[in-house]
Design goal:
The structure is a single chain. Helices cover about 20% and strands about 25% of the residues. By secondary structure, the protein is α+β, with helices and mostly antiparallel strands. It has a single domain (about 10-145), classed as Nuclear Transport Factor 2, Chain: A, CATH 3.10.450.
Amino acid sequence: MSIGAITLADITSADWSMALDTQGVPGSGIGNIVQGLADVNQCIQIILTTSKGSDPLRPTFGADVWRYIDAPINAAIPAIVREVTEAILRWEPRVTLVSINAAPILGGDAQAGAHLNIWVTWRLKLTINGTRTSPLAQPQSILVTIPAH
């Protein structure tokens, strides 16, 4: 085993997965794991950046936010929020959604408005002896940038 390799002894959470690469840094996730809240954030990011139909074993997995990229903004934003809400409710059972906001990335370049920022605020669904305690959980937020497809 290589020096610095992650072993089972390093995993301290029931919720963990292999780390994804950092955007723009190929190979940065190799050999790393994410645990706990970071794992939930990574799972939400995967859900929102996966097109439905791209996973052959789960054809309904993901969110088709790309369908609305060229739509008028006043029609696209509510549809994107609905799409994101449905995808997270279906595919991430560990969270309760607090809020979802979406906005195009505006700038001075030729691609202005072609990318989308989605802010998702969520709480863990915590239970103690079968009683839901999620209002006591601290809200968490993640920003997911959707590039033009």
